[in-house]
Design brief:
There is one protein chain. With 158 residues, the protein is of the alpha+beta class. The chain contains 5 helices and 9 strands, in the order βααβββαβαβαβββ. The strands form 2 sheets. It has a 7-stranded mixed beta sheet with strand order 1-2-3-4-5-9-6, sandwiched between helices. It is globular and about 40 Å long. 27% of the residues are buried. The structure holds coenzyme A (COA). The site of coenzyme A has 19 residues, from α1, β4, α3 and α4.
């Protein structure tokens, strides 16, 4: 069997955003559009097919945030999400950022595991964030998604 080739690249100007993937992480297209226009979207391709993506936004001086990260459902659990985070960390260090942040729902147990394994620390909770900002209730792992858990990685300490 031939080895699959993986490539990670930023999408070009005028190139369509991989909405199908981004909607896995963020169920509201209007929310995605609100940050995507000001962000860099990076995709992971396997044999030319886009199967993963993350969206990075410069939020404050020297601080960037991963606003969205997703891997196609049938490709999850193979280490690609971790690869995308490592790519974002390397990119941010190269660009001179001092910190990288990410937020996730209180019910996103796998994501909370992944982010902490990658070196993010919990820095706060935005209570009722998802209740206030999303029209439809979200439930994951049998848990109502209400609060945004905010995590941060200090890049200057690494
Ligand atoms: C979150 C997501 C990007 C992770 O990508 P992935 O390629 O599945 O993750 P990886 O294979 O790199 O997994 C890395 C770690 O995540 C955790 N993890 C991932 N999938 C898991 C699963 N099904 N069950 C338990 N843990 C899991 C594990 O802790 C794993 O650690 P390990 O390598 O030590 O076993 C992906 O699952 C996804 O797209 N989910 C839907 C969209 C989403 O929720 N995005 C984030 C919004 S905050």
């Amino acid at each position: 069997m031939s080895k699959l080739s993986i490539r990670i690249r930023s999408i070009g100007e005028g190139e369509e955003l991989p909405y199908e993937l981004l909607l896995l992480a963020d169920p509201e297209r209007s929310a995605i559009d609100a940050y995507a226009g000001r962000s860099i979207c990076t995709v992971l391709e396997e044999d030319g097919q886009v199967i993963g993506a993350y969206v990075l936004l410069a939020t404050r001086p020297k601080t960037a945030e991963i606003m969205n990260i997703a891997v196609r459902e049938d490709c999850q659990g193979r280490g690609l999400g971790r690869k995308l985070i490592e790519h974002a960390v390397a990119h941010c260090k190269e660009q001179g950022y001092r910190a990288l942040e990410i937020g996730t729902g209180n019910s996103s147990l796998n994501q909370l595991g992944l982010y902490q394994k990658c070196g993010f620390r919990v820095i706060g909770v935005e209570t009722d964030y998802f209740v206030k900002h999303y029209a439809e209730p979200i439930v994951e792992n049998g848990i109502p998604c209400r609060d945004m858990i905010r995590l941060r990685m200090e890049l200057s300490l690494m």
